[in-house]
Amino acid sequence: MTELDIEIDDGLRHRAVEAAERCVRLYGCRLTPSQVNGLRQLGRLQPKEVSNYAAKQKLRAQKRSQDPTDRHAQEAGFWDQLWKLCNSGKAKDLDWTLKSALAEANVAKGEQDQWINDRYPPFFQALCIHYLYLRGQQSPHEEDHDD
Amino acid sequence: MTATVLTRAQLAKIETYLDDEENNSRFAEQGSLVYQVFRDDRGGRDNISSQVRNLQQAATSATKLADVEDFIKNQMGKGTGAARRWRQDNLGETLLKELGELRKTAHNLAEGNSHHEIQIRLRLARGWVRSVVSEYLFRKAQEAQDVAGENHP
Fold first, then answer.
1. pTM, 2 dp
2. In terms of CB atoms within 10 Å, which end of chain A has fewer, N or C?
3. CA distance A40 to B149
4. How far is A74 from chain B (nearest CA, A)?
5. Which residue in A has a C-alpha nearest to residue B88's C-alpha?
6. Cβ(A144)–Cβ(A32) below 8 Å
7. Alpha-helix runs per DSSP H in chain B
8. Residue of chain A with shortest Cα separation from B85
9. Which residues pair with A94 in a beta bridge?
10. What is the nearest CA distance from A61 to chain B, expressed in angstroms?
11. Is residue A131 within 8 Å of residue B73, measured between CB atoms?
């Protein structure tokens, strides 16, 4: 049992659950299960790409949005939160991010990729699973047929 | 260097917790709820619900308690008929709540050693799943016996 396993089962998981709950609280459950599963897969296979993907998805949703309260605007909000988790330091409305955790871990430059490869996959897995779990609670009768 | 192997005293405490009458009866109630929800599932030659089999498999192959929690949340989050049943009668929530209790118990038994804590969580989760599934199987066997009795009066 490594320190990393402990970190994943405790702190990181707790942060991922918090992040999913914040996204749902702020923007509702606007993503489809396919989108969430896509994010989960990207987090697992190409963790460093999550940030770019979130930025692109945000732009795409913003282009579709007609009104700041419509579902596309809310979807853009979700992707914005995700981008911030990867790229922002701590802020007034965000007391923890992956970037701030990396900075606090004092990881040497050459080992930062490894840090990301170790932590992003379990983080995004926990976030996505919790998001879908919350989504299931909010729309229990909706079938998605993508599993 | 932190000692990562659980002590005999800790192993004994885990067994005591799992064997405790009150805990056991709660686990049995949960197994009974699992049976109520998945009783009509027919899977494989042994007629065991694939949901129950997968829950057991998730606990057996888990490397951390979160894997078991994720399995349940994942099943509840799917937009399928199985997900509806995991949410039926509060089943998924009840099991997740119990896993939360096991986390707290592991914290107390580990006495500040996080390496021990994560192992204790896993042992508790596996013991708990064993109890829940045993109750499900027991009820399944009872049902089969009742049906056989009806067919051969």
1. 0.89
2. C
3. 50
4. 20
5. A140
6. yes
7. 8-19, 21-38, 50-61, 65-77, 81-87, 91-110, 114-151
8. A140
9. A91
10. 23
11. no
Q: How many CA atoms lie within 13 A of B148 on its CB side?
A: 6
Does A2 score more than 90 pLDDT? no
Convert the pLDDT of each residue in B29-87 to its tens digit.
999 999 999 988 877 667 889 999 999 999 999 999 999 999 999 999 987 788 899 99
What single DSSP character describes residue A9?
Answer: I
CA distance B39 to A117: 42
Using the Cα atoms of residue A44, residue A48, residue A50 and residue A52 in order, give the sign of their dihedral: negative
Whether B103 contacts chain A with CB within 8 A:
no
Residues 6+ apart with CB under 8 A from B137: B48
Tell me the sheet residues that pair with A91. Answer: A94
Which pair of tokens denotes residue B116? 């021990």
Residue bearing tokens 């998001």: A131
Distance of CA B98 to the CA centre of its chain: 9
CA–CA separation, A121 vs A116, rounded Å? 8
Subunit contact A129:B73, Cβ cutoff 8 A: yes
Pick the residue from chain A with its C-alpha nearest to B65: A9
Q: Cα B45 vs. chain centroid, distance in angstroms?
A: 22
